[in-house]
Specification:
Four Helix Bundle (Hemerythrin (Met), subunit A); single chain; globular; mainly alpha; 138 residues; 79% helix; 7 helices
């Protein structure tokens, strides 16, 4: 059975990270690039926010007896299969999980402009996920 308290705490964590990221994205690009701490902090907060969405998914998967995910991205496919999220949201979150892998493992040099653009344009996916999960548990 899904632990609503645990999921609520994780949802709160995602919300706090998204809020902080959104605040930093309001800064002009020049400020972000000239501040030695701004972009590393943004990258870290993105990683934490995305990893926390994965933690939520994995908790639901285990609690509901769904098929085990084969990767972080696959966690969201499993949630879609289980009826917890729709296909569009699952796809967006799979993309987020792959972006997290890129940031963490540095498979390629991550362009700072791409990080800022992702932070400015994809946070709604994380918020939609949190709203979807919270409504399902209400």
């Amino acid at each position: 059975m899904v632990d609503p308290g645990r999921v609520a705490a994780l949802l709160e964590r995602v919300g706090a990270e998204v809020k902080a990221i959104r605040q930093s994205t309001e800064r002009p690009d020049e400020d972000l690039h000239s501040d030695n701490d701004a972009l590393p902090a943004m990258k870290y907060r993105l990683v934490v926010a995305i990893e926390t969405t994965i933690d939520i998914a994995d908790h639901i998967i285990a609690s509901e007896g769904m098929r085990p995910a084969q990767s972080f991205a696959d966690s969201f496919a499993a949630l879609e299969e289980g009826g917890w999220v729709d296909g569009d949201l699952a796809g967006a979150l799979q993309e987020a999980a792959r972006f997290r892998n890129l940031l963490v493992h540095q498979y390629a040099d991550v362009d700072d402009d791409r990080v800022v653009e992702t932070a400015r344009t994809r946070l709604n996916d994380l918020e939609t996920y949190c709203t979807t999960i919270a409504r399902r548990l209400a």
